[in-house]
Amino acid sequence: MTDSNELFSEVILELYKNPQNRGKLNVPSLEVSGGNPICGDKATIFLKLEGNTVVDASFENVGCAISTAAASLLTEMVKGKTIIEVLEITPHQMFDELGGIIQTRIKCATLALVLLKEGLRQYQKNPAKTAISGIRV
């Protein structure tokens, strides 16, 4: 069995044990949900937008330590950023912030980012559509 220290960085363990921004925002501007049908991780990302700027973000999820930590980290990263800046966040930035990710857990680490980016792209096309679901990673 793999030692948890080999699988999870200290950052991941801390964010998993004490996630930031967990829970639904009151009256979110955008709600995006989806999951990974292979491993079963599911997440919903909530954003509060003012104009093109993310003023608040949160998440709810059922998933592993990596997907929970990544969602927590991402909701902190996007606050105060414009939609364009959020769309420019790369998976590698997430991996670096999380302290590294092993190759077999990439989809766990990028679930929240994929949901967020796809939701924002759809929101840009149709701002009236505030709830987007069924996105698969």
TrEMBL record:
<feature type="domain" description="NIF system FeS cluster assembly NifU N-terminal">
    <location>
        <begin position="9"/>
        <end position="128"/>
    </location>
</feature>
<protein>
    <submittedName>
        <fullName>SUF system NifU family Fe-S cluster assembly protein</fullName>
    </submittedName>
</protein>
<dbReference type="GO" id="GO:0051536">
    <property type="term" value="F:iron-sulfur cluster binding"/>
</dbReference>
<dbReference type="GO" id="GO:0016226">
    <property type="term" value="P:iron-sulfur cluster assembly"/>
</dbReference>
<dbReference type="Pfam" id="PF01592">
    <property type="entry name" value="NifU_N"/>
</dbReference>
<dbReference type="GO" id="GO:0005506">
    <property type="term" value="F:iron ion binding"/>
</dbReference>
<dbReference type="InterPro" id="IPR002871">
    <property type="entry name" value="NIF_FeS_clus_asmbl_NifU_N"/>
</dbReference>
